[in-house]
Amino acid sequence: MSSLRYVHPEFEKVALELFRYQARHNPVYGEWVTLQGFDATKIASVSSLNEVPFLPIEAFKTREVRTGTWEPEATFTSSGTSGQIPSRHDVARLEAYLRNAEASFAYFYGPPSNYAWLCLLPSYLEREGSSLVTMAQHFVQQSSAGESGFFLKGLDELRFRLETLEANGVPTVLLGVTFALLDWAESLPKPMPLKHSIIMETGGMKGRRVEPSRAEVHQTLQNAFGLDRIHSEYGMTELLSQAYSQGEGRFRCPPSMCVVPRDLEAPLLHAALESRCGLNVIDLANADSCAFIATEDAGRVFADGSFEVLGRLESAELRGCTLMAL
User: Fold this and answer.
1) pLDDT digits (tens, 9 = 90+) for 29-74
2) 3-state DSSP helix/strand/coil % of the chain, to nearest 5
3) Whole-Å CA distances, 231 to 28, 109, 149, 219, 288
4) What is the DSSP annotation of 98-165?
5) What is this structure's pTM?
6) What is the rounded CA–CA span in Å between residue 106 and residue 98?
7) What is the CA radius of gyration of the chain?
8) Label partner for 115 (CA 20 to 30 A): which of 22, 64, 125, 196?
9) What's the DSSP call for residue 49?
10) What angle do CA 213, 216, 217 make, to 5 degrees?
C-alpha cells in the first residue's frame, strides 16, 4: 500500500469529478473502467483516488482517446522508434495547451517571457506533431531576446548567441534533447562556464547513442558548462502538463498534475513510496482526452509527491497493464 497524503484535497476533489465525467463520456476510458469491474453505481460511489483506474498509455497508439464530441485543433504525435506505432493525442484547444504549459513552467521558474530560449531539439524538429516543439516555439515567441530560437546544426551560432546572452547577463534557458546536449558538450574545445543560464535536458537518447545514467549525463554537462546542477523537463505526447527537476533528477509537479506509484506485481494497486514502481500520472489538463494515465516509465515516488524516473519498464514488468482486452 502507499499513501497519497501528498495530494491536495482540492486536487483530489477536481480529479474525482473528472474521473466520473470521463468514465461516462470517454468511450475508450469508459470501456477500460468497465473491464475493471465498474458499473454506473460504483463509478458514482468512488470517493478516493486510491480507487481510480488508470488507462494504459498504449491506448493512444491504437484508439482515439477523446472525452465528449469535438474536432481537434491540433494532434500531437510521439517520435517512437523504427517499426513502432506512434502515439496520437488529439487536442481540443491548442490555446489551452499553451496556457497550461506556460503556467507549469512559471510555477517553478517565473514567466517564460523573462528568459531567452535557445532550443536544441534536432530529433523533434525533424518530424511533425511534437508537443515539445509547439511549447518551445510558444516560449521563443514570448521572449524579448532576439537571440532566442531553434538550432538544428548551427552549433557555432548557438555558442555565439549563448556567449552574447551570458555577456549581457540575460537569464537564458538552453532546452535540449539529452543526446544533442551531450554531443555538443563533448565537442567543446574547452569548458564554457555559464552564470546566467539554465541547462534543461529532456527526451533521452532517442536511440542515437548508448543510454547513460542521468547522473553521468548531468556530470558531463556540469563539467562542460561549469554548473552545479542540470535541470530536466518531464513530459510526453499523452500528457498536456510538464513536471520539472531543478537538479539531481527529482521532479516536481505543477498544480495540474500528480504522479502516483503503481505496483509492478499488481498493476491495479499502488506501490509503496520510495520503492521502484511504475509511474501513473493524473493530468487535469487532459480534460478533453484522459486524465488518468498508466505510463511505461519506471521510477520512485516520494512522500512529498516528487518523483524520479529510472527509465522504461521492461516488457515483463508491463504484464497486467496492457490493452489486449480493448
Assistant:
1) 999 999 999 999 999 999 999 999 999 999 999 999 999 999 999 9
2) 35, 20, 45
3) 35, 11, 19, 12, 30
4) HHHHHHHHHHHHS-GGGSEEEEE-HHHHTSS--HHHHHHHHHHHH---TT-EE-SS-HHHHHHHHHHH
5) 0.93
6) 12
7) 20
8) 125
9) G
10) 90
Three cell numbers at 304? 512529498
C-alpha grid cell for residue 223?
A: 563539467
pLDDT for 172-185, tens place per residue?
A: 999 999 999 999 99
Q: How far apart are CA 15 and CA 48, in angstroms?
A: 9
2 — pLDDT class (breaks 50, 70, 90): very low
Mean pLDDT, all residues of the chain: 91
Give dist(CA 121, CA 321) in Å, integer.
Answer: 31
Q: Is residue 325 scored above 50 in pLDDT?
A: no
Q: Strand, helix or coil at 17?
A: helix
Element (H, E) at 183: helix 178-187
In one-letter notation, the amino acid at residue 224 is: A
pLDDT for position 314: 81
Determine how β-strand 88-91 pairs with β-strand 74-77. antiparallel
**Which part of the chain has CATH 3.40.50?**
95-234
Write the single-letter amino acid at 299.
Answer: G
3-class DSSP state of 233: strand
* Count of alpha carbons within 13 angstroms of residue 158, beta-carbon side: 22
Dihedral angle sign, alpha carbons of residues 164, 234, 273, 52: positive
Q: Among 70, 93, 101, which Cα is nearest to 240's?
A: 101
Task: For residue 31, give every residue at least 6 positions away whose Cβ sits within 8 Å of its Cβ, in sequence order, or none.
Answer: 326
Amino acid at 93: R
Q: Is the pLDDT of residue 230 over 70?
A: yes
**CATH class of the structural domain 95-234:** alpha beta
